[in-house]
Amino acid sequence: MSSLHIFPGYRFEMKALADLAIDQAVKPLDKAVRWIEYVIRRKEAKHLQNPAVDMPLYQYLLSNGFCLFSFISFYSIRRISRD
């Protein structure tokens, strides 16, 4: 933060870069409407769907990894407590 005071042109440069980023040919609302209409026209638009749609619920919720982690933890604690 202190280096920002050293460079007087920093504010001017950031303003110029912000103006470039804000300048868009299509407004964001128009872009969103276009994509919604695209999906409606193409019915389901499978290529735009999240891959998690086709996953089984146990895999989506990462329960298989949780069960493995729980088993290893339980087994390790039990083994340590025996000694």
TrEMBL record:
Say yes or no: keyword Membrane present: yes
Which Pfam families would you find in this protein's record?
UDPGT
Q: What is a single molecular function from GO for this protein? A: UDP-glycosyltransferase activity
| InterPro entries, alphabetized | UDP_glucos_trans
Q: Which UniProt keywords apply?
A: Membrane, Transferase, Transmembrane, Transmembrane helix
**TM ranges:** 57-77
Q: What is this protein called?
A: UDP-glucoronosyl and UDP-glucosyl transferase
Origin organism of this chain? Popillia japonica
